[in-house]
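Hello,

Our lab assistant flagged a job as stuck in the queue for most of the afternoon. It eventually completed. Since we weren't sure the result was trustworthy after the delay, we are filing this so someone can double-check. Below is the sequence as submitted and the structure that was eventually returned. Let us know if re-running is recommended.
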Amino acid sequence: MKRFLTVFFTALLLTAALCVTASASDYDAVAEDLSAIGMFRGTANGFELDRAPKRSEAAIMLVRLYGAEEEAKAAYDAGEISHPFTDVSEFTSPYVAWLYNKGITKGATATTFGSAGTCSAKMYCAFLLRALGYEDGVDFQYADTLAFAQQKGFYDPTMFAGDFLRDDLAALTYQGLAADLKDGSTYLLDSLVRSGAVDAEAAKPMTEKIETYRAMTAAMNTVDSNAMDVDLDVQMDMTVTAEGETMRVPSTMQGNMKMIVAEDGSVQMAYTMESASQGVNMDMDMWMKDGWVYLSTETDGETMKLKYSVEDQLAAVEGLGTVNMDAMSVSGLAMLESVTAKTSGGNTEYTIVIGEGVNGLLENVLGMMGQDAGSMDMRLGKMTATYTVDSKGNMKKVDMAFTASVKMDVPTEDGQSYSMAADYDYDMSMIVNATGKDVKVTFPDFSGFQEIDPSQMAA
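-- returned structure --
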């Protein structure tokens, strides 16, 4: 299901050619949760999520992930452990000494640890993998750290593209705590609670969230999400402000989408939608085939048929949703404010609330696809999604509600432009008609479609 939704929203983004703007920090709530269990601590200036983490800070986090903070401090104070580095502060010394004596770190040189140097995503994923019980050079090679971390389900390149900040370190830590240990006995946070390194009561909100999310992910993995046929019903309420005037525009959309994602990552899709807004009706058909999007719209008897290539963009995101599901995937957990489950009539309903972190993910996806920001900025608000799975593990329905805001510069005939802002309230429902081999996609004759540059879609 995760792969289907990834490609589904990618397709919508390719059609709209929108730019999603992320805030400087998307994982504030994650930092708060980690702080509650003593895993992540700030400075006199707060969490400082918008700067790059230092190697010294990563070392402190790693010792905590091993559940050895108190052990390291006691051993260092007793003179039982030490380190040879001259660039490590007194505060950080117990942590570095513990890592050095365990052979987990050797430092930058014989006499320097590189405390002030920045910690990269690859370096921190290597730290997390060690805490999970994996060994460099045995289970994975350092050069392949990110791919191995993705395979283990806690790293996703769409979440951590660009500069690696303390914000990202917090999110990676959160997902690493939910990942399975190498021996498969339990997940990392649970092992820390069992050992007494983390207080069970303080960790309870996190452990409940992790275990519900893992149950939801396991249920989703029974669905053949490489091919789906869904009916869509969308209610949208838009409020537009331009040149000092405000107008409310409600609209409805109903349609169907069939999508097949092949093993090689190629996508076939047929998307049909009828919309109505303020007395204006529009029919839209969209297809994706062989790396091309074909778009046909009809409004008041006027038809427009366009096509544009998305082969390069699809190649850029081909492997983004591929995770080895033999390992429990917890990628995306850091974006969720909450996840709950309830049974109803033999079905299980999983409800997730997605926070501001989704904007960073969408910005990264668009960046990987080479989308130009242009003059349009879009930001998603809080998103709530409910997945209904029956007793046999079949996906039956997806309900989603979210808000969005868009700001853009609209060109005028005299070569000038004016600013326009729009706020949206979306309520979308998807009924799953079929999955797997029962899904068939058919295509019309595309000979009459005019080729355009995808960037023209925004206009």
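-- support follow-up --
The delay was a queue issue, not a problem with the job. The result is valid. Residues 200-220 form the longest helix (21 residues). Residues 1-25, 319-328 have pLDDT under 50 and may be disordered.
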